From TrEMBL:
GO terms for biological process: cell adhesion involved in single-species biofilm formation; negative regulation of bacterial-type flagellum-dependent cell motility. It catalyses: 2 GTP = 3',3'-c-di-GMP + 2 diphosphate. This is diguanylate cyclase. The keyword Ribosomal protein does not apply. It comes from Acinetobacter indicus CIP 110367. Its EC number is 2.7.7.65. Keywords: Membrane, Transmembrane, Transmembrane helix. GO terms for cellular component: plasma membrane. The chain crosses the membrane at residues 37-56, 76-96, 159-180, 192-216. GO terms for molecular function: diguanylate cyclase activity. It holds the Pfam family GGDEF. Its cofactor is Mg(2+). The keyword Membrane applies. Residues 257-390 form the GGDEF domain.
Length: 396
């Protein structure tokens, strides 16, 4: 039979891989240097895109009347130089990642270099152009997700002052606005200028959207993993006590039909830990979990309720059905094959206490009744199944 547990008692290969990806491969969990390498790689792509645009303009004489050719050639060389600078910084981050100075200073240097290159080209195409504005809004937002605030603001504040100063001086004619273009008319009437703005905007916008999507998706996965880990027992990977209580509370709230609660406690479990070590005790708990999971229905719930105590919640079950399930589980536990380091068998048993809900019995009371039945099973010599029976009032 299948059981309704969070995952199998022993995590599957797929679960291990998923957990590794969520915990280790989340971009936000990368080291600061790895994030720097990602940012420098994206910066290299930006220089490649700018170089491509300038090369196309230089190879298209029809467009020369719209641009400052001398400045364009100069900036093409600067873009190629910037590309090699970014590649070199990637190499420094990679090959000197274990050096303390690299971890301490390279994030500031890399972010500053990245922002300076964007500000320089932002001035060339116009500080108030759509390309510059999209870059200014998008990249700091992503940066604040990836890096510590002091790293981002150490570059963002000077960049803001620079762009504001350029805009102010351009407005009063002290600086040429968008010196890369020869704008003799309102820029939005210049089709070449508009298309150029789109060429600069689209790669930056798509890059930021992809990063946002990756970060958001991984954030959601990590939140889901945290929620999962808060609901399960880390050893057996079954529901923990908190999740079981929530399940019972929901059954009470929905006024579900009669259901049974079975408490399972391993007999003399401390002896296994004392004589064979805690690793063998853990192995015993995992195998018991396998056995219990294999003898209940998919609709039923299995959880670890304490150290060596488990709980079964059998939905829509009668007292007879509950006793049958408990008895099958009891017998199966006695047949578990567990061996010590000398390959000698380790035998152990379990006691079972059963309580049945009646007329929307509060789950706290039901747990108390199951615990009383379990205590009776222990008192009867252990390795027993006991159904809670309410005491009949004494005759007067």
């Amino acid at each position: 039979m299948k059981s309704r547990i969070a995952h199998s008692a022993v995590p599957t290969f797929k679960y291990k891989v998923t957990r590794y990806l969520l915990e280790k491969e989340v971009v936000m969990n990368w080291s600061t240097l790895n994030k720097c390498i990602l940012m420098l790689f994206l910066g290299s792509l930006m220089h490649v895109i700018w170089a491509i645009w300038k090369s196309v303009v230089l190879l298209t004489p029809e467009l020369w009347r719209w641009v400052n050719l001398a400045l364009l050639k100069q900036q093409l060389v600067i873009n190629l130089f910037g590309l090699f600078v970014f590649i070199g910084m990637i190499g420094i981050c990679h090959y000197f990642r274990k050096q303390d100075w690299t971890r301490r200073y390279m994030p500031y240097i890399a972010v500053a270099t990245f922002v300076v290159s964007l500000c320089r080209d932002g001035y060339l195409v116009g500080v108030l152009s759509p390309a510059t504005m999209v870059t200014y809004i998008s990249l700091p937002t992503v940066g604040l997700v990836l890096f510590e605030r002091r790293i981002v603001y150490s570059a963002l504040i000077p960049a803001t002052l620079y762009l504001v100063s350029c805009g102010y001086l351009s407005f009063f004619g002290q600086l040429t606005y968008a010196p890369l273009f020869l704008l003799t008319d309102f820029p939005y009437k210049n089709g070449f200028w508009v298309l150029s703005m789109l060429f600069f905007i689209v790669p930056i916008l798509l890059t930021c959207l992809v990063l946002f999507e990756i970060l958001l998706s991984q954030w959601r996965y990590r939140e889901a993993l945290i929620a999962h880990l808060s609901q399960v027992d880390p050893l057996t990977n079954t529901f923990n006590r908190r999740s079981i209580n929530q399940c019972l509370e929901q059954l009470n709230h929905k006024q579900a039909p009669s259901y049974a609660v079975i408490l399972v406690d391993l007999d003399h479990f401390k002896q296994i830990n004392d004589e064979h070590g805690h690793h063998k005790g853990d192995e015993a708990l995992v195998q018991v979990c396998h056995v219990l999971a294999g003898h209940i229905r998919e609709q039923d719930v299995l959880g670890r309720f304490g150290g060596e105590e488990f709980i079964l919640v059998l939905k829509q079950a009668t007292a007879h059905q509950a006793k049958q399930v408990a008895e099958r589980c009891r017998q199966a536990i006695t047949q578990i094959e567990l061996y010590d380091e000398h390959n000698q068998p380790i035998h152990f048993t379990a006691s079972f206490g059963i309580a049945l809900s009646h007329h929307n019995t509060p789950y706290e009371k039901l747990l108390s009744q199951a615990d009383q039945a379990l205590y009776q099973a222990k008192a009867y010599g252990r390795n027993q199944v006991v159904l809670y029976q309410p005491l009949e009032p004494a005759a007067s």
